[in-house]
Amino acid sequence: MRCCDLNEGPMKRIRYVSHFSSPMGGQEIDEIVKISERNNPSREVTGILVVAGQVCFQLLEGPSAEVTALYKKIECDPRHDRVLMLSVEEGDFERLCPDWAMARLDLAQSSSAHLAPVRSLLEVVFAQREILDGAVQALEEFTWQGLMDAQMDAAGQDV
Ligand SMILES: Cc1cc2nc3c(=O)[nH]c(=O)nc-3n(C[C@H](O)[C@H](O)[C@H](O)COP(=O)(O)O)c2cc1C
Which of the 8 DSSP states describes residue 50? Predict the structure, then answer.
């Protein structure tokens, strides 16, 4: 059964990148894909998992509540860390991958020339996302400090 044939309510699509906590071999990736293929169909979740060495990209889509619950679970999985959300879409949209409980693309096991840029792109996306996270943190800290200074100045002028 194609998941898009199901009678669906509000949909959610999440994209994230993460970093495996320890080197992942084909067997460990197989294990994740097996769990996904077992769990995702009953939750009407579909998606893709791209693995490039230590970095991975996953797209999850399906009923909003199911995707939210699954993402929360995946986020806490000790097999990976630095789970960085790239995008969230919500609404009434068509699935990008209606036929895959979890399609797997392991770049270590593929020799397709078309896939050559995928690893570099994935690494660039991951690095950019980490830089952005650091910048947002610094932005918040400077803003916080600026607000505190402004309050101190205002309090000083009142005296
Ligand atoms: C990168 C990554 C992707 C995962 N993707 C899925 C997924 O699509 N579906 C899923 O059920 N579990 C996925 N998991 C596994 C979950 O984190 C969790 O171990 C699993 O859902 C637990 O299943 P259980 O409650 O049936 O034991 C993923 C784990 C990792 C590290």
Answer: E
